[in-house]
Amino acid sequence: MATVEDVHELARAMPHVTWDERVYQVGGKSFVFFRTPRPDALDPETGERLTDVIVFWVAGEEDKLALLAQEPFFTTTHFDGHPSVLVRSSRLGELGREELAEVVQDAWLARASPARARRWLAEQGLGDQLE
After folding, report:
1. How many domains does the chain have?
2. Is residue 62 part of a domain?
C-alpha cells in the first residue's frame, strides 16, 4: 500500500529535483504537487470539498485518460485540458508502491528536459522510450 511518505520519497529520488513542502520540480517545472484546499476542489460525484489532493503530471491526454480509467485517479473541471491527474492522499493506499513509483517517474519524465529524460531512461536500462 502506497503512502504520502512514499510520494515524497519517490519524488525526491528522481534526479535534478528541487522541492519545498508542497511542490516537486525538475528544471523549474512542477511534476508532483500537493494542492492547497481550494473552493473549486470538489469531488465530482459527491460535491465534497477535497482537502488532500495530489497532482501528478502526465505526458499527454492519452496517458491522462488511461489513468483516469483506474481508481483512485480522477480529475476536476479545473484540470480539464491540463496534462495531469489527481489522487486524494486518503486513497493512496489503493495503489501499490510500485504503481505509485511508475506514476511519479512518468510525471518526472513528462516534465524533465529530453536530455535528462533520455539519460535517466538509459541509466534504468530502458533505452530511449521517449515518444
Report:
1. 1
2. yes
Which pTM does this prediction carry? 0.91
Q: Is residue 131 part of a domain?
A: no
The amino acid that residue 112 corresponds to is A
Range of the domain at 91: 4-123
- Tens of pLDDT, residue by residue, the chain (131 residues): 999 999 999 999 999 999 998 999 999 999 999 998 887 777 777 888 889 999 999 999 999 999 999 999 999 888 989 999 999 999 999 999 999 999 999 999 999 999 999 999 999 888 756 55
In the chain, which ranges are E strands?
17-19, 23-26, 29-34, 53-57, 84-88
Give me the phi and psi of 53, to 5 degrees please: -90, 130
Q: What is the CATH number of the domain that holds 11?
A: 3.90.1150.30
Q: Are 50 and 39 in contact (CB under 8 A)?
A: no
